[in-house]
Amino acid sequence: MRGTRPIAVHRILLTALMCIVAAVFFYPVVYVLINAFKSDALITLDPMGLPRQWYPDNFIRAWQAMEFPRVFMNTFIITVVSLSGIILISALAAYKLARTDTRLSWLLYGYFVLALVIPFQIIMVPIAVLSADLHLMNIPGIIVMYWGLGCPTAIFMFHGFIKSVPRELEESAAIDGAGQWYIFFAVVFPLLKTIVATVAVIDALWLWNDFLLPLIVIKQGTIQLAQMIFNGQFLKEYGPMTASLTLSALPIVLFYLALQKYIIKGIAAGAVKG
Q1: Is 29 a member of any domain?
Q2: Residue 238 near residue 55 (C-beta atoms within 8 A)
Q3: Quick one: DSSP state of residue 53?
Q4: Which tens digit of pLDDT belongs to each residue from 12-28?
Q5: Best exposed site among 67, 115, 146, 222 by fewest CB in 10 Å?
Q6: Are 37 and 51 in contact (CB under 8 A)?
Q7: What is the pLDDT of residues 74-109, one digit of tens each?
């Protein structure tokens, strides 16, 4: 009995600490939600308090001012097409690199890994100049840029996971007459669903919420850029601003909740097994 008391106290303290940490991280979400239903005057006077009267006009104002259906569809197209390309290109590249044991393959893999440590701010200006020279300052152009920016991380994660896939499965399919494309898409790729879901969640959060690259390349047309209308130099509309944040976050939060169980599992498989 004496030995169990310290353990019980330790667990209680640890649980209490984790609850406090969770509350600290969750409070900004609550702050945005409660202010989305308050008028600008009430937000200014009492930003931390609960709404005295629910004020849904913020959502109407945000919906109309942002042209929400249009910017939502643009952001959705950019996210879906970019994410699909990143997954497909990275999975194919990682499969070839993992199954080719040559100096060139390891050199290329090291090149992709090296790209992970280069901050976006360093290549921001060259990307802006290059996109203008190649006439890529539009939605198709930014999708191509996202493919290039997103593939290094995805290749690193796919590479480690693919190395854990038994080669015997591919050899059996090859003996039956299957080609490389069939082996990849029918044998290997279905086994990658865990890491695919992980890459999908991580990159979808990045693509949906990205602000800097769309600002540089297309200037307008996405949800994140449209929210700038409420943050002017002389006037800030806090109510519509928080309402727009709620509207923009809802789809990606639902997507995250649907696939979040794969995140830790996939990251561990991709990093440790590699």
Answers
A1: no
A2: no
A3: S
A4: 888 889 999 988 888 88
A5: 67
A6: yes
A7: 999 999 999 999 999 999 999 999 998 889 988 999
